[in-house]
Specification:
By secondary structure, the protein is α/β, with parallel strands linked by helices. The chain has 14 helices and 20 strands. It folds into 3 domains: 145 residues, 3-Layer(aba) Sandwich (Rossmann fold); 76 residues, no CATH class; 241 residues, P-loop containing nucleotide triphosphate hydrolases (Rossmann fold). α2 runs antiparallel to α4 and α12 crosses α13.
Length: 494
């Protein structure tokens, strides 16, 4: 990946990283992320940073924050700019390298096809100059712009993406929330097992080598080919012991949630999290059609309208269009958000539409046309209309732009399309939760529509990683699509 120079006999251990503007605008604290290595900021980077600091967007805020951070570092150290400013003090020992700013003209030998009027090409010229001036050292461009990295490598320069913002390099390592137990689990962990009943559930205290790797609210299952495989949730861990609890079977019609029953193992796990009053934060990942929205809405409606655990349901999402923006949307806040909530409307129709025989049995957890029972129990079309009006009176659609400073008390907060949120936005939303509020984040990390966000740096990936193991949170990655054979096949082959 990196072009290696053979100039010089030995290279210093520390490298010199030249930062592109987009790195600073993506992570203003990146100056403290390079440990013992030095950082170089071209003058063009500062120019572009200044040009992007106006406005109220996330990029503009980051540009202003990066500028303030640079001012704090440089203030009082003007005499040391040419030699490089020590970062040990300003970073509180997070970094031990030096910050270098461009103080003179640097005209590296660029090909004639690359005009110096462009900012990217000027940064590349600086990179060439530094490489030639310090032949025994790794001089590396750091940029979020893939085309910038390609041009740098074409010129024989070293270039890297900015990785320090990523929770995981490989999303296959993301915590799934479930664990399949080995076939000999009971032989190795059940020798001194204790069991008891509590709130209608059976609890087991087991001991063994696997217990030290278990996390609170992690789901365990053992499929040994029998009719009823063992399924449980980890309630607490203590070294080499763990307490496991049996689950409520939401796949059975008697436990239907707003007329919805789970159609597979992961949906059952998800409903156990959504219906548990001790779980304050739930994250659901899965491709389109796995039932994330329907399960969440069914659980929210049941706990809002039936058990009265929550006062109302609040739904929000980041408004990132898949195609071209259609421009200004008239109306109030909720009216402006309505076009973005098509998935919510579709699922509400499912929940309020009786399927064949729905009065006798619950519907299935999919938005493909299997409905619940609540809309049809109260008098045909009139009853369904009244029920829908009641449902909509308890659902509030809020814009992400007006969330800062708010506090939600006894609310069921749904954050839809959370894969398009940055970690900072995710923190802003979750910290809005007051006493008695449950927060549910849903998303599909394979469908990120925001520039500069990847599967590894998405806000929902960040939240899953940071909250795993907390006794009042849970996560499930839904595996099976339940929409239609066409949708499932399309998700696999396209």
């Amino acid at each position: 990946m990196n072009a290696k120079s053979t100039r010089g006999a030995a290279r210093p251990a520390t490298k010199l990283f030249v930062l592109d503007t987009n790195v600073l605008m993506h992570d203003p604290t990146c100056l403290y992320r390079f440990q013992e290595h030095d950082i170089f900021l071209p003058m063009m980077t500062l120019e572009e940073l200044d040009a992007n600091k106006k406005g109220m967007s996330e990029v503009a805020r980051n540009a202003r924050q990066a500028s303030r951070l640079l001012d704090e570092i440089v203030s009082g150290c003007e005499h040391a700019i040419k030699q490089g400013i020590e970062l040990t003090g300003p970073s509180r020992e997070l970094a031990s390298g030096r910050l270098h700013l461009q103080t003179e003209a640097m005209n590296g030998g660029l090909p004639a096809s690359l005009p110096t009027s462009r900012g990217d090409n000027q940064i590349l010229a600086v990179l060439i100059h530094l490489r030639d001036a310090q032949p025994g050292r790794h001089v590396i461009l750091v940029s979020k712009d893939i085309n910038m990295r390609i041009k740098a490598r074409a010129l024989g320069l070293e270039a890297q993406d900015y990785f320090n913002d990523k929770v995981l390099e490989d999303t296959d390592l993301l915590y799934p929330g479930t664990l399949e137990l080995p076939a000999d689990f009971w032989e190795t962990h059940g020798q001194d097992m204790k069991s008891w009943k509590e709130d209608g559930r059976t609890l087991y205290r087991v001991a063994g080598p696997l217990c030290q790797d278990l996390l609170a609210n992690q789901f365990l299952y053992l499929d040994d080919g029998q009719d009823k495989p063992f399924q449980s949730i980890v309630r607490e861990t203590d070294g080499k012991t763990a307490v496991l609890s049996t689950l409520i079977d939401y796949g059975h019609a008697k436990n239907a949630v707003w007329g919805i029953t789970a159609r597979n193992r992961e949906q059952n796990f998800a409903l156990n999290l959504l219906m548990d009053p001790e779980i304050d934060f739930v994250t659901l990942l899965g491709q389109a059609g796995t039932g994330k929205t329907l399960l969440t809405l069914a659980a929210g409606l049941t706990q809002t309208l039936e058990s009265k655990r929550y006062a109302e349901i609040i739904i929000t999402r980041v408004t990132v269009p898949v195609g071209e923006d259609i421009g200004f949307l008239p109306g109030s806040e909720e009216e402006k958000m309505t076009p973005w909530m098509g998935a919510i409307e579709d699922n509400l129709e499912v929940l309020n539409k009786p399927a064949d025989g729905a009065e006798k049995s619950g519907g299935s957890a999919t938005s493909a046309g299997f409905g619940g029972t609540h809309g049809g129990q109260y008098g045909g079309d009139w009853g369904r209309a009244a029920t829908m009006d009641l449902i909509k009176s308890r659902i509030r659609i809020k814009s992400l732009n007006f969330m800062r400073g708010r506090t939600f008390l006894n609310k069921f907060l749904i954050i839809d399309e959370a894969q398009n949120l940055t970690p900072k936005q995710m923190k802003t939303l979750i910290t809005r939760a007051g006493p008695g509020t449950k927060v549910v984040c849903m998303g599909n990390i394979a469908q990120i529509d925001t520039p500069y966000l990847t599967e590894g740096s998405s806000g929902i990936t960040y939240a899953v990683d940071r909250f795993k193991g907390w006794p009042h949170s849970g996560h499930i990655t839904l595996q099976r699509g339940e929409r239609s054979r066409l949708a499932e096949h399309a998700a696999e082959v396209l």
